[in-house]
Please model this.
Amino acid sequence: MAAAAAAAAVGGPQPPQPELTAPGLALDKAATAAHLKAALSRPDNRAGAEELQALLERVLSAERPLTTTADGEEAAVAGGGGGPGAAEEEALEWCKCLLAGGGGYDEFCAAVRAYDPAALCGLVWTANFVAYRCRTCGISPCMSLCAECFHQGDHTGHDFNMFRSQAGGACDCGDSNVMRESGFCKRHQIKSSSNIPCVPKDLLMMSEFVLPRFIFCLIQYLREGYNEPAADVPSEKDLNKVLQLLEPQISFLEDLTKMGGAMRSVLTQVLTNQQNYKDLTSGLGENACAKKSHEKYLIALKSSGLTYPEDKLVYGIQEPSAGTSTLAAQGFAGATGTLGQLDSSDEEDQDGSQGLGKRKRVKLSSSTKDQSIMDVLKHKSFLEELLFWTIKYEFPQKMVTFLLNMLPDQEYKVAFTKTFVQHYAFIMKTLKKSHESDTMSNRIVHISVQLFSNEELARQVTEECQLLDIMVTVLLYMMESCLIKSELQDEENSLHVVVNCGEALLKNNTYWPLVSDFINILSHQSVAKRFLEDHGLLVTWMNFVSFFQGMNLNKRELNEHVEFESQTYYAAFAAELEACAQPMWGLLSHCKVRETQEYTRNVVRYCLEALQDWFDAINFVDEPAPNQVTFHLPLHRYYAMFLSKAVKCQELDLDSVLPDQEMLMKLMIHPLQIQASLAEIHSNMWVRNGLQIKGQAMTYVQSHFCNSMIDPDIYLLQVCASRLDPDYFISSVFERFKVVDLLTMASQHQNTVLDAEHERSMLEGALTFLVILLSLRLHLGMSDDEILRAEMVAQLCMNDRTHSSLLDLIPENPNPKSGIIPGSYSFESVLSAVADFKAPVFEPGGSMQQGMYTPKAEVWDQEFDPVMVILRTVYRRDVQSAMDRYTAFLKQSGKFPGNPWPPYKKRTPLHPSYKGLMRLLHCKTLHIVLFTLLYKILMDHQNLSEHVLCMVLYLIELGLENSAEEESDEEASVCGPERCHDSWFPGSNLVSNMRHFINYVRVRVPETAPEVKRDSLASTSSDSLSSLQNSGTAQVFSLVAERRKKFQEIINRSSSEANQVVRPKTSSKWSAPGSAPQLTTAILEIKESILSLLIKLHHKLSGKQNSYYPPWLDDIEILIQPEIPKYNHGDGITAVERILLKAALQSRMNKRIIEEICRKVTPPVPPKKITAAEKKTLDKEERRQKARERQQKLLAEFASRQKSFMETAMDVDSPENDIPMEITTAEPQVSEAVYDCVICGQSGPSSEDRPTGLVVLLQASSVLGQCRDNIEPKKLPITEEEQIYPWDTCAAVHDVRLSLLQRYFKDSSCLLAVSIGWEGGVYVQTCGHTLHIDCHKSYMESLRNDQVLQGFSVDKGEFTCPLCRQFANSVLPCYPGSNVESNLWQRPSNKSIQDLIKEVEELQGRPGAFPSETNLSKEMESVMKDIKNTTQKKYRDYSKTPGSPDNDFLFMYSVARTNLELELIHRGGNLCSGGASTAGKRSCLNQLFHVLALHMRLYSIDSEYNPWRKLTQLVEEVNSQQGNEEQQPEVPILYHDVTSLLLIQILMMPQPLRKDHFTCIVKVLFTLLYTQALVALSVKCNEEDRSAWKHTGALKKNTCDAEKSYEVLLSFVISELSKGKLYHEEGTQECAMVSPIAWSPESMEKYLQDFCLPFLRITSLLQHHLFGEDLPSCQEEEEFSILSCCLGLLPTFYQTEHPFISASCLDWPVPAFDIISQWCFEINSFTERHAEQGKALLIQESRWKLPHLLQLPENYNTIFQYYHRKTCSVCTKVPKDPAVCLVCGTFVCLKGLCCKQQSYCECVLHSQNCGAGTGIFLLINASVIIIIRGHRFCLWGSVYLDAHGEEDRDLRRGKPLYICKERYKVLEQQWISHTFDHINKRWGPHYNGL
Model:
C-alpha cells in the first residue's frame, strides 16, 4: 500500500504539487541521503535499511505510471503516454544523490575513480571504430587495441595493422591471456593492485543498497515494455520505443562502469547475487505491480518456446493469474506457433514448403540432455535475466556496451560467460527470427569474441557448462530448419537430406556468429582436444557436416537454356567454407604430433561411417548418375585432410586408416565426377545452365577455397589411385571424361556420349587431369615451405603481383599468414628468394603503377611449373599469360628463340606411403592410350591438338622418370596372369613397352571410313598375322569392359561371374540403339612402336626427313652425365629428343633400337589422299581456327595502323601542322598560313566567311594566386596550433592592393593600374589541332544526338578533339593572314624613338570599328563570351559601378596576363632554358591576342587619360589638379603595374602590330619600371644611406651619360621624394624593420635587376608569341642582359668586359629628370594626405616563388589520427567522410549534408572558392585524392603507399603508409600545368553532391 500512496504523492492526480516543492526537494534529497547514510553506518542499521527500502520503493515506482492500469487512455493521461517524463529524471536524481550519500555526485565519481586498479583497459567500442591489431604481440588472432593503447605501446617493426571494427570490440591491453605483456602500453604495464589503497567501506555502502533496486526497476521496465504486440513478432518500432525511454537509465549504468574497478566489483556483486534476485523478482508478496511483472516475464519465456522449471508453489500461484491474462497468452501462442516444440515442423509449413514430410530427422528430441539445452532456461540472478531481455530486444547497442564494460572485472567475466552459454540456444532462436539479422549478428560476435578468445575461460566453461555440446547441438538445430531432400543419384528413393541454399539462413549467412564462435573455441588446444576425444560429439558433428554433403546439386540442361539463373551457389560455397572447412582446419592445427594419432583415428573412423551412411542413403552402387554434379563433398574432404595430416605429421601407417577396395572405389567416384565436370564446363557443355555454373567452377579453384576444395579432392583421388588397380583407375578416368570412343586407331569413330566439337577439349581435360594427378605433390611429400614457394611461383608467373594481392592469392592453409605462428615470417623470406621488387614507376601517360613483385630469372629458368599454374588459375587466360611471359623470358635471355612448350619440371620425391601412385604410369591401359594418341597425331587424325601431344609426351616422360624396375626383371616377366592385352604389350613397364612393335590392330569403324575400302586386301594378304592380333582388336571396348570386369571381380571376388555380367551390360550401354551407323571391323597395319612413333614425330615436327640423330653417337659423355641444360627449355622437338635420350639411358635395348630405327632411312610420308566424305568432315574446328587466325591478323594490322596514325598525329614536329614559311627573297609577299581541318580533312587558309579555329580548353584557374613569397613550404596542419592563413598568397596581396587603390583614386583609373585574374583567371590551352568552325558545329550536333554516355557534357559545349581525343570546350578562331608576322614588319626601321612614340599614340587614338558582320567576327564574339563565362562573376567584376565597360577592359587584358604568367611558371619561373614555347605548336597566345585586341579596341581610352601621354610627354598645367579637390584623383603613374600597362598599350594597337612599335613601347615602359625600382630601393634603405646616396649622385649629375647612371637617378629620385612626406614618419620602429644590410653597389645592382626581371620575362614571352622569335637560352646570372638585348633595349653589339649595369638599357624619350620629377610630384601630392598608404602602394619588387601544394607529412598516420576525429566547423559533429584541401589546408565534409549551401555540398563549394572550380582533396578515411574540375570529378589515386609500394584505398589493409614524393610531384605538376582533364581518364559528373 505504501507504494500506492507514494505514487499518489509524487506523480498522482494533483500535478502542481511537485513543481512547488522542487527547490525544496533538492536540498531535501541531499539531506535525506546524508541522514540515511549516517543511519546505515551505525552498527545496528536495521532501521536505516528499512527506511531506505521504503524510500526506494516510493521513488523507483514513481516512474511506473504506465503500469497502474491496463487501460490505455488513463495511462496516457497519467504519464504522458509513458514518455520520458519528469518522474524518470526525478528517480535518477534520487539515485545519484543516494549513491553520493549527500555529497556532490561529481565529487563522488572522482573519489571512486581514485581507487581504480587499472590493470586492464577494456575500452569497448562499436562498429566503425578505428582500432589496431598486432600479430606479433597477440596470442589470440582476435586481439585488438584501441588507438591510445597502441600508440603508447612499442610496436616498431611488428606486424600490425589498423582496421575499422565491423562488429565492435574491446581493447585487450593488459590482458595477458590474449596478448603478450611486451605489447602492453605504458598505462597498463604496471601491475598496480599493490600500490592502490583499500576502498573505504562507507564510500560504496549506499551503492550496495540502491543498485539492486535500480536494476530491478530496469528489469521491470523491460518486462513491461514487451507486451505491446499481440499479433506478430514484436515490431522493431515498439521495441525501439521502449529502448529510447530507457536510454537515461542504461547510460547511468554505463557511467557507473566507467568509474573503475571499485564500482565494477559492487555492480558484479549486485548482478550475480542470487538472494537479492529471489527476494525482489519472485512475484510473491502483496504488491500487484510485482505480480503483474512476474507474470509477463513468464509469458515472455513461454512465447520464446522456453519452459521455466519451478517448484509447484509458483505454478500454483500462477494458475489464477494466468487466467486473468489468458488473452495475452493465447495471442503469443498464436503468434509464434509452437516454436519450442521441435517435433512439429510448423515453421516450415508456414513457409509453404510442405514437401518435407519424408525427410529424415536427426533424432535429437529423444535425448533429454539436448532437450534441456534447447528448451529450458532458469534465471537465478539479475545478470541472467538482463541477458535474457538483451537477447529478447535483439541486442540493443547500449545494453551490449554496458555488459561488456563490466568485463575487466574477473569475477563478472566468468559469471557472464556462463550466463551467455546458458542462453546460447535462445540466442540462436532469436537470431533466426530476427529481421535485422546482420546487426544482431555483429552484436552477438561483439560479445562472444571477448569471451571465447580467452583460452583459460573457454576451457573452464567447456568443463563446467558443456560448452561444446551446447554449440554443436545449437548449430545442428539451426540447420535442421532448412533441410530438403537430396536429389543426388537416386531421386525417388534417396533418404539423404541437405540444407537448402536458397533459404535466408544460408543466403544471408545468418549462421556465421555461431560458427565463428565455434571456430574461435576450437582454436584453443585444450578445448579442441576435448572435442576430438568425445566420440558422441564427433558423431553429432559428422551428422552436421553431412547436411552439406551434396548440397546445391547442378543438373545439366540439355535442351533449353535455364529461365532463371539461381545465385545460391555462393551461399553454398560460403557455408561449406565457414561451417565445415574452417572448423576442420581448426581441429587439424592441433593434430601435429605423434601423440595425437588417436584423435585422427577417431575422426577418420566416424567420417567413414558417415560416408557409408551417405552412400546407403543415396542408394549408390557403382555408376554416378549422368549429367549432375555437386561441388560440395565436405565428408570426403574431412577424410582426405585427416589422412594427409596423419601421414605427414603423425607418422601413422596409411593402410591402417584406409577402408577396403570397394569403399575406395566408391570414394573416388564423386571427386572424379567433379574433375570431369570442370572439363565439361570449360568445354561449354553446360552453357545452357547459364553463367552461374562457370562461377562455381571458378570458385572451386579460387584462392580462398582451393585448399579446402580442389586440393583435398585431388589428394583423395591420388590416395585411391595408389591403392586401386591402375588399369581400372585409368579406364575410369577416360570413361568419366567420355572420350573412350575417341581412343581408336581408326581415322573415324562414333562417340555416343559426346558431340564431336567437345571431344578435343575433353580429351585435353582428361590428359591434363592425369598429369596433375601424377605430378602434384602438395600432400604427398612437400614440406610447408616448399608448398608456399610453389604457390608463390605459380601466382607470380601468371602476372606480376602486388604484395597484398599475393597475400590474398596464396591459400591460407597449410601456411597461415595471419595466425601468430612463428612460421608466418617465412612468407617474406620466400618472397625475397623468388621475386624482385619493381618500385612504382610513372608512365608518361600519367597512369600510376603500384609496387610489383616479378619472378627472378632463375625462377623462370628452374622453377616455373605449368602444372601448378593450371591447377591454380581461375581464368584460362592466366595460363596463356604465364606461357607468354615464359616465352618472353626465354627470348630475352637468349635461351630459346621460338615458341616454347611448357617445361618439364622435376618433382619432390614421393612420400613412401604413396609409392603406388606411380603404378598408373606403368599399366598397359595407359600405354595403349599413349600409343594410340601418338599414332593418331602422326596420321593427322582430327580433333588432336598440340596440347594433347604435349600432355602425352609429359606422361611418357613422367613414366621414364619414375620407372623402378631394373632392365633384367623387365625382360623376364613377359606374361603375367592377365591375358587381355598380351597382343599389345608384353609387360607393364613403360621402358620395355616403348620398344615393343605392334603390327596389326583390328578396329571397329563406321562403314563409311576409308579403312574399310582397303580392308579386303589387308585381310587376305595377312590373315595369319591378323589371327595373331586377335585379342587386340576390340580395343574400343576393352577399356570399359576391362574396368567393369575389375569392379565386379573386386566386389564378387569371382572373375567367371564377372565376365557373364559385364558383356551384355557394356554393349547396351555404349551403342545407343539406332543412332549409330553400322560398325564393321577392319584390320590396320601399324608396324610401329612408341619409340618409332616418337622418332617419326620428330621428323614431322621439324619438317625435315631423318632429322633425328642420336646424340650419344657423337658424344658418349651424354649418357654418363645426362643433365644437359640445352634440353630444359624448348618446343616439341626438344621434348622428343629429351624423352628419347632418357629412354636410351634407361635401357641398352632401347638405345640399340633407336639407333636401328634411325638407320633405316624413312621413306617420305606420302601426302594424304582425302576422300570426298572426309573433306566434308574436314573439321569445323580447323575452319574456325583459320577464321580466328585471319581475324587476329586483321586486328593486328588495324592496331598497327592506328598506332602509326597516333604517332604522326601526336608528334609535335610532324610536318602537317608545321606552318610553311615560304618567303622568297625576290618580292616581300607573304604566304598565308594554311590549316588542316581534322574533321573534313581539307587544308586551306582561315577566311572571313569560313574561319578555321583551334581546339581549345578554357578553364578558370587560381594557381597563380597560390604563389607565396617565402621559400619555406606550407605544411598541412596536423595539430590544432598549425593553421594556414592565406594572407601571404599572391591573390590576397593583389586583392588588398586593388581595394586600397579604389579607396583613394578614381575607379576607372584604378582598373587600368592593376591586373586581375590571380584568382579565377581564364587559362587557354590547345592540343594544336584545327578545324573549320562549321565542321565543329555539325560535330557538336552529332555528339548531342549520340546516346552513348560521355564523360563530359555536350550542352556546356564540351567535346573531345576529334583527332587526339583531348578534352576541350571551345574553338578559338584563327585570324586570317600570315601566321607569324612577315619579315616586312620586322625590318628594323631607322625612325627615331620620338617619331615612333607619335605613331603609337596616333594608332591608339584611332577608334577600333568592329569589323563588318562576318562569320569570323561572330565567332570572335562568341569565343569572347565563352571566355567570360568560364570564370565566376565575382572574378570579373571589380568595378564599383557594376557593368561598367572598364570591368570588361580590365578582364580582357588580364586574360592575356594570366596566360603569359602561367606559361612563365610552366617554364620554371624564368627563361633560362630558352627555346620555343613549352608545348611547341601547342600555344594559342597569338590567336588569343587577336581576339582580345579586337574587343579591346572597341573601348577607346580618352586620350586625356591614356597613360601613354604621361609616359612620353611633360605635362605643363601642373596646377590644374589642385583645383578640383572633390573629385578623386587618378592613380599616380608610379603606382601603375608596368606589365599591365604593356598589355594595355599593345592590345590597344591595331593588329598586326609592327615590331618597331612594340620595341618602342617596351623602351618607354622600361624607363617607368626602372624609376619604380629606384623609388622602392630608396624606401628600403635608412635615412643615412639616403642622404649619402643623394650626395654622391648629385656630384655626377652633370656627366655625359648621367641619364644612364643609376646613382645619379637614385639621388634625383630621393631628392624629389624628400619634398613630400614619403620618407617622414619613420620613427625608430621603422628602422628596426629595415634589414640592416649595408648596400654595396653590387647588391643595389642586383636589386634593380631582380626588380625588372619579371617584366622582361613576360615581355620576351610576348614578343616570342607575337613575332615568332626564338628565346635564347642562358645562365641565370646573365638572364637580364640577354633578355634586354633580345628586346632591343640594348644595342646588339653591346659586349663589355666590365660588369653589366642595368641602367645602360635606359632610353629616355624626354629628359629624364623632368619626367621623373613630374612622376614624383604625383606621389608627393598624395602622401601629403595619406603618408602611410602612400608607402604601402609603392610597387614592391616581385618576390613570388613558384606555386606548390601543401607539404605532407612522411607518415599517413599523423594525418589520419588528427583529421578522422576532427569535428566539422559547421555542425560540430565528426563528419562521415572528412576531406582536406591540399591547396589551402581547409577541412571539409565530403557529401556532408550539414554543410550544404543552396544545393552545393561543401567540397564543390570549396573547389569554386579556393580553385575557381578545381579542387584537390585528400579523403582522410580512404587515403585517396579526389579531383573536382568544374562539374566533373575523378579519383586520382593515392600519394601514400605502404612499404611494398601499394596504395591502400579505403585503408582496408591498414598497414602504415608513407608519402611517395614522386607521385606527389606528378599531382602538383598536373595541377600547375592544368592537365587534369587530359591525363585522368575516368571522369564522372558529381551533381554538386560532393
